[in-house]
Amino acid sequence: MPTSLCGKWELLSSINLEGYMIALGIGSSTRKIALKLKQHKLIEQANDKYVIKTFSTFRNYVFSFRVDEEFDEFTKGLDERHCKSVVTWEENRMVCIQKGEKKNRGWAHWIEDNKLHLELYCEDQTCKQVFKRVA
Ligand code: ECB
């Protein structure tokens, strides 16, 4: 079994969030705000159902899914697009593919050195985030 991603996590670092947001078509004023945010994540699991909540003082983004089951995702408060998304485990990585208007879109979470890692990608841009455990 992969190490649990569950718990509360606080953002330590982001690399190329700007490029990722540009790929998503986010305007410059929103990008400026988003770059300064201290994000938190709360990841919860009950059997095969997960809830991932991303919080900030500006906007929150919450969604839930079952592993291996495609679902309709609306990225409300982010780029506001509809995707057909599916989350799977690839070894110790939780991988999401977000099929929709944007090519090559998705993300992956994994634990390394007791930290939560996240790669967010869209088109030719990848954003890398690292979170530390706070609960
Ligand atoms: C929700 C906190 C960030 C709010 C930023 C607001 C506006 C910027 C609009 C779009 C930028 C896209 C992403 C910002 C970075 C992270 C937000 C959540 C990324 C995400 O989809 O995480 C996955 C994996 O944990 C769960 O959806």
UniProtKB/TrEMBL annotation:
Stretches assigned to the Lipocalin/cytosolic fatty-acid binding domain: 7-133
Pfam families, alphabetized: Lipocalin
Gene Ontology MF terms: lipid binding
Matches recorded under InterPro entries: Calycin (IPR012674), Fatty_acid-bd (IPR000463), ILBP (IPR031259), Lipocln_cytosolic_FA-bd_dom (IPR000566)
Gene3D superfamilies in UniProt: 2.40.128.20
Protein family according to the UniProt entry: Belongs to the calycin superfamily. Fatty-acid binding protein (FABP) family.
UniProt-recorded name of the protein: Retinoid-binding protein 7a
Organism field: Ictalurus punctatus (Channel catfish)
